């Protein structure tokens, strides 16, 4: 089994419910075991600013799936929650559910289908804060410790939510 980390985000419909339901669905992913779940966080949108805040979280999975197969499972899950990916869609637009494969063990790859580690995770508090909660000593290959990277994102608005 390989430890993988997945970021979850939503800002359409009922995003808190969507993230909670998506976490439940991830517990049933083929060849994988959900091992840690961060708190939920309310975060400001990045890029396209004129949209609702996001609800974000990060989970840890122990998986037998290679990176591309895990990504395919995550894409299928996004579609189940109403995510439609159009080739010409606006980047960072509002979405029902976004699942990003952040890390897959110590895999480092850069190809058109998948880049690991996720190429912008080291500069985004909405990924780093929940990741630091469940794996503070984790090192992002080529960038450093999660806790140190989070300190560099101190100016980004992020607010932990109380769990229901």
Task: Walk me through this protein's architecture.
- By secondary structure, the chain is α+β, with helices and mostly antiparallel strands.
- The protein has a single domain (2-160), classed as Alpha-Beta Plaits, CATH 3.30.70.560.
- The chain contains 4 helices and 10 strands; from the N terminus they run E-H-E-E-E-H-E-E-E-H-E-E-H-E.
- It has helices at residues 15-26, 67-80, 125-134, 146-151; strands spanning 2-10, 32-37, 41-43, 54-63, 98-104, 109-110, 115-116, 139-140, 144-145, 158-160.
- Strands 1, 2, 3, 4, 5 and 10 form a 6-stranded antiparallel β-sheet that branches. A two-stranded antiparallel ribbon has the order 6-7.
- A hairpin with a 4-residue loop joins strand 6 (109-110) and strand 7 (115-116).
- The model has no long low-confidence stretch (mean pLDDT 90).
Number of strands: 10
Radius of gyration: 15 Å
Shape: globular
Examine the coordinates and then state which fold CATH places here, giving the name of the CATH topology.
Answer: Alpha-Beta Plaits
User: What is the count of structural domains?
Assistant: 1
Largest sheet data: 6 strands, antiparallel
Low-confidence stretches: none
Number of helices: 4
Question: Could you spell the SSE succession in H and E letters?
Answer: EHEEEHEEEHEEHE
The overall pLDDT average reads 90
Distance between the termini: 31 Å
